[in-house]
Every structure is written in structure tokens, then in C-alpha cells.
Structure prediction request, 396 residues.
Amino acid sequence: MRVAVIGAGPAGAHLAYLLGKEGAEVLLFDARDAWEKPCGGGVTTKAMREFPFLAASDAPKQMVSSLRLTTGAGRSLRLRPRGDFAVYSRAALGRSMRQRAVDAGARLHSTRVGKTRYGNSGWEIETAAGIYTADFLVGADGASSVIRRRMGVHFGLNDFSYALGWHVKPRENGYETRNPHEPAAGHGQVDIKYLPDFTGYLWAFPRTDHLSYGIATKYRETTPADLKARLLDFIALSDSLTAEEIRTADHHTTRRAAFYGAMIPALETATWDGLKVAGRSWALIGDAAGFVDPLTGEGIYYAIKSAELLADALKTDIEEYDDRWRAEFGAELRRASQLQQRFYRSQFAGAPLVERMVQFARWHGGVRRTLRDLIAGEQGYVDLKGTLKRRIWAVV
Prediction:
């Protein structure tokens, strides 16, 4: 079988590796070099455990042993997951995973894909370098997937979040401000801040050679200018000089701070219910399929997992793929969608739910452990309520 994979991010590159090592002929298309995707770059403890190749990758990674949550009212809580998680440069991780796919036999084509047509002889993929043919087509081309739309799978504007931020390099010379996220003995801290009446959060992720600052919220909930202003206030708490440099440069890119912005899938419950991401000769994986946690925006685990599920389905029956991802993580992502508005916008005991959650976790060990496991990917959403009830009433 010849498989054409459009998009060489973590989902596409991992699928190409899996199929290549099984002897399939894999054509992997991506016009861009691996790039610094607009995200924190965090890989959960669960993903590190389930996919050992991530830890073994030669891509530089910053190990993280603690996470600090701060509410809109200024309450903070420091959590220490049972196992460290990693923060990668997504460009470096992407290059490593692409090379791994090539080493397994996939052919990487650095060319833009144009029209795709399906006929009696299979797929024809038109590119700037010529026309290629394939028996099966996979869309792994990200949140704004062209292949998804061509296959008749449509997401609405409410099915997206929007993220923007800056990758900030340290000063090379002169005055250097103290970095509150600076690694201690090789282990860094992630900072997350929630805001009142805001469906999303701000973050600071330490990487091996820079900091990734960002903010994400539901698409069109507010303006990009408002998001930038909120994020610059957050950066100023850590480094007022950097924030002032960015403001002076018209809220964009400076010599030390590279701006980013992008759409992120955050599917509504109704979209999950009707979602079908495979047909007889095609399938979608990763962000292209919408496989991102609507509550946190985490997608690396689901990118890699969906690639593995599709690779298995291609060995047996492609019609099993939709059933497999629903059984494996579909209910979790659907539940996250249900919880999104409740988590960020609802009130509990006279205060935002996030505020009360952090407040309770500060004095109750059971709530604190549950929140820690949720962030690490060890605790699911479907049984979250039951876990909280058991731990709240257990002897701490």
C-alpha cells in the first residue's frame, strides 16, 4: 500500500514512522521546515510514559517538576506531579520525529500540496514538484487542515480557540533580570494564570534556551489587541524590561522576542457527537481531526495516539478507526468540551469555579492530588467527579 501523509508534524511524522517500519510505502508531504509551533510545548507525564521514544529523542527538552497555578484574585498553588513532564522546542522535536520517519523508510517531500483527486487508480496529489499517486490519503495538516475540508468535515468558528504569545530569549549581555521560571538543578517550573470572566489562561513555559509566554481563549471571545495587553501585563510580572521592549516594538517581534499566533481546535460537544474522520480511502489525525483537549489545549498526546490507532486500523479495517479513537479518548475530549464553560465561567460559592478550586486544593490534600493528576494527564474528565468525591471524604 502507498500512503500519502499531508503534514509532517508529530501526528504525520509518527504515522509515517509506524507505517514505514511495517514496510508500507509512505509519502510524507510538508512544504515547511519543522517550526516553532505556537504553544507552550509541554508533553504530559502520561505521554512521556506511554511513548518512550519522546524521552529517548535527541530533541532538547526542559524537564519540569512543578507547576504554579494563580487565580484572578491572586491565590496561588504549587503542584508537583508524581513524575516530571517535559517542555520541548517544537521545531527541534519536529525535526527529530521527521528524521525518525525517514530512517524508517518514509520519503519526505518538502513541497506544497495543491489539488487532490480520487479516481479509479486511487489518489492523485498535485504538488509544485509534480503529481504523485497513492492508495490512501491522510490529513495531518493541522488545525486549519485543507484535507479536512476537502473530505467534507467542517468545523464552525465556535470549534476553535485562539492563542498568541512570544518566545523570549535571554539577554546576551548587560543587565539580566531574575527569571522566576529558571530551572533549579535541571528542573523548571511552569506558570499558569487564570483571569476572571475569561475562557482560557496565560502561561510561561521554560525551555532549554528561551521562555514561551502565551495566552489562549475561545475564538472571538475578545480581540487580539486585548489578548496582547493581558499577556504583556503577565510578562511584566516576570520581566518588566522584556514587556517594555515588546510594547515599544508595537506588540510584535523584537530582537529577543518572536511573536506567534494560531488557531487551536476546541470542538463543541455537538461537533464531537457527529464527528467522522475516516472513509474508505482517507483519514484525519491529530489537530486536523480536532483531537485537542478543549479545556487545556493539549494536543501532542492525541496527535501521537491517533497516529497509532490509525496505523493499527490500516492493518485490519479502516472502518474501525472511528470506533477506536472514540473508545480510546473520544469520551474524554467530549467531556472536556462539556466542562469548558463550567470550569472557566461558572460561579461556585460566590466566586469563579477556578478560584474555589485552587482555594480548596490549598487546604485539602485530596483535591490537590486530583488536580495534580488531572494536569499530568493521569486523571480523566469522565470520572473526575467520582474521584473528587472519594478523595474529599477520605481521610487525608
Summary: The chain has three domains: 2-61+87-157+267-331, 159-265, 341-393. The chain is about 35% helix and 25% strand. Confidence is low (pLDDT under 50) at residues 173-186.
